[in-house]
TrEMBL record:
<dbReference type="GO" id="GO:0030956">
    <property type="term" value="C:glutamyl-tRNA(Gln) amidotransferase complex"/>
</dbReference>
<keyword id="KW-0547">Nucleotide-binding</keyword>
<protein>
    <recommendedName>
        <fullName>Glutamyl-tRNA(Gln) amidotransferase subunit A</fullName>
        <ecNumber>6.3.5.7</ecNumber>
    </recommendedName>
</protein>
<comment type="function">
    <text>Allows the formation of correctly charged Gln-tRNA(Gln) through the transamidation of misacylated Glu-tRNA(Gln) in organisms which lack glutaminyl-tRNA synthetase. The reaction takes place in the presence of glutamine and ATP through an activated gamma-phospho-Glu-tRNA(Gln).</text>
</comment>
<dbReference type="InterPro" id="IPR036928">
    <property type="entry name" value="AS_sf"/>
</dbReference>
<dbReference type="GO" id="GO:0006412">
    <property type="term" value="P:translation"/>
</dbReference>
<dbReference type="Pfam" id="PF01425">
    <property type="entry name" value="Amidase"/>
</dbReference>
<dbReference type="InterPro" id="IPR000120">
    <property type="entry name" value="Amidase"/>
</dbReference>
<comment type="similarity">
    <text>Belongs to the amidase family. GatA subfamily.</text>
</comment>
<dbReference type="GO" id="GO:0050567">
    <property type="term" value="F:glutaminyl-tRNA synthase (glutamine-hydrolyzing) activity"/>
</dbReference>
<dbReference type="InterPro" id="IPR020556">
    <property type="entry name" value="Amidase_CS"/>
</dbReference>
<keyword id="KW-0436">Ligase</keyword>
<feature type="active site" description="Charge relay system">
    <location>
        <position position="73"/>
    </location>
</feature>
<keyword id="KW-0067">ATP-binding</keyword>
<comment type="subunit">
    <text>Heterotrimer of A, B and C subunits.</text>
</comment>
<dbReference type="GO" id="GO:0005524">
    <property type="term" value="F:ATP binding"/>
</dbReference>
<dbReference type="InterPro" id="IPR004412">
    <property type="entry name" value="GatA"/>
</dbReference>
Length: 472
């Protein structure tokens, strides 16, 4: 398994060139992509970027990611490239500027090999709603890779990138990371700029890394985090918690009543408890915590998120840019452009969001959801005064079969039960591979999730590395 850290050392020791590394990764991506569909597009200028990285390396000006081949989710703008967000309505849209994270990757010398497939406008938990077709799980191509950043997770898992960027609105990095057996991390809200990220739900979205190891995820995170004057929600300076001495052993809180709920596969729960026992054996303290509001995070999310979707996607109207369907009247242009341009799940969430924001229902649904969101956030913050981390399984089950949940949206939405609290509260979370379970004679990966107080990314990376050391 070639990691980013190992590739960095090899490139600096001139064991191979950035061009040779990129060629090997791109060849692997081209070989695997017809079956996996992780990439919507592999860029033909990747080798030119690798040549630039080789010049940097030869001049001794090696930036942190010089020569490292990465994938980027299709909802981040890259100047001159199509940025479709997995939707027909933007299928021919070319970005006119770089997202801040893309600019940071370029400055760090990274080689962006392509844009990865995703659920349309990041709406989904299986990467089956993409206008480019469903993404398959590299572990078992009859199963989903998770979503909405399934293409990025699959690209890393199949060896078609050493790392990748995704966006996480309710678990869209952590859930596919668990299903594909890689590491996925969602930073504190505002720690990574969202400028140039196509908005799904602006108060929930956050860009983060996928990688094969926790060390690699940390390398990517350090390359993209930091203040951005172009993003009013980006944090301006480091928090006091980041400036002190970091702990080596942590107090881990387990929300037992939450984990004991129905709908969670027993072998997934057993794997979680085994990892927790191993961490306890390594000197970490484990205690039960009470978080009675946590089960309400999912319904709160599925009110607030569609409401923000309704507002954010109103700009795609067939008039300003993107797909447009000619018609006799302006209203018909709107109706037909949006009706044909958006897929079924996007239309469902737009309608739901419009409903909860409408007169007569705003107070009954949206305002109550905002109030409960505040309650959940306060409850989590109080808990972090007693524990350093909160641990749960990342997902209630391993990767499910393609098509299994597409006809039942409520079952699909339950995939996010453990991950949405981090987005609701704006706190960081990480999913680390924790072992495997057996389904239909196939060994499938599962993940363990840790959430921490705002700005405690270092604690997440530290505990993630411990999991890598103790997992079976």
């Amino acid at each position: 398994m070639l990691t980013i850290a190992a590739a960095q050392r090899a490139l600096r020791n001139k064991e191979y060139s950035a061009k040779e590394l990129t060629q090997a990764v791109v060849s692997r991506a081209k070989e695997k992509n017809p079956d996996i569909n992780a990439y919507a597009e592999l860029f033909d200028d990747a080798m030119a970027s690798a040549e630039v990285a080789d010049r940097m390396l030869s001049e001794g000006k090696a930036a942190p990611l010089a020569g490292i081949p990465l994938g980027v989710k299709d909802n981040m703008l890259m100047k001159g490239k199509i940025s479709a967000s997995g939707s027909k309505i933007l299928m021919n849209h070319r970005a006119v500027y770089d997202a801040t994270v893309i600019g940071k990757l370029r400055s760090a010398g990274a080689v962006i090999v392509g844009r990865t497939n995703m659920d349309e406008f990041a709406m989904g938990s299986s990467s089956e709603t993409c206008a480019y077709g469903a993404v398959k799980n590299p572990i078992d191509i009859s199963r989903v890779p998770g979503g909405s950043s399934g293409g990025s997770a699959a690209a890393v898992a199949m060896g078609g990138a050493l790392g990748a960027l995704g966006s996480d609105t309710g678990g869209s990095i952590r859930q596919p990371a668990a299903h594909c057996g890689v590491v996925g991390m969602k930073p504190t809200y505002g720690r990574v700029s969202r400028y140039g990220l196509m908005a799904l739900a602006s108060s929930l979205d956050q860009i983060g890394p996928f990688a094969k190891t926790v060390e690699d995820a940390e390398i990517l995170y350090q390359a993209i985090e930091g203040h951005d004057p172009m993003d009013s929600t980006a944090l301006t300076e480091k928090h006091e918690s980041e400036k002190g001495e970091q702990k080596e052993k942590f107090t881990i809180g387990i929300p037992e009543s939450f984990i004991a709920m129905d709908g969670i596969d027993e072998d997934v729960r057993e794997n979680f408890r085994l990892i927790i026992e191993k961490l306890k054996g390594e000197g970490h303290e484990v205690k039960t915590v009470s978080l009675p509001s946590l089960p309400h995070a999912l319904p709160v999310y599925y009110i607030i998120m569609p409401a923000e979707v309704s507002a954010n996607l109103a700009r795609y109207d067939g008039i300003r840019y993107g797909f447009s369907k000619e018609a006799d009247t302006l209203m018909e242009v709107y109706r037909q452009s949006r009706g044909e341009g958006f897929g079924k799940e996007a239309r469902r969430r737009i309608l739901l969001g419009t409903y909860v924001l409408s007169a007569g229902y705003y107070d009954a649904y949206y305002n109550k959801a905002v109030a409960v969101r505040r309650l959940i956030t306060e409850e989590l913050m109080r808990t972090f005064s007693d524990v350093d981390l909160i641990a749960t399984p990342t997902t209630p089950s391993p990767a499910f079969k393609l098509g299994e949940k597409m006809t039942d949206p409520l079952k699909m939405y339950l995939e996010d039960i453990f991950t949405v609290p981090a987005n609701i509260a704006g706190i960081p979370g990480i999913s680390v591979p924790s072992g495997t379970v057996l389904r239909d004679q196939t060994t499938l990966p599962v993940g363990i999730q840790f959430m921490a107080a705002p700005f405690s990314e270092d604690a997440l990376f530290a505990i993630g590395k411990d999991v890598e050391n103790v997992r079976i």
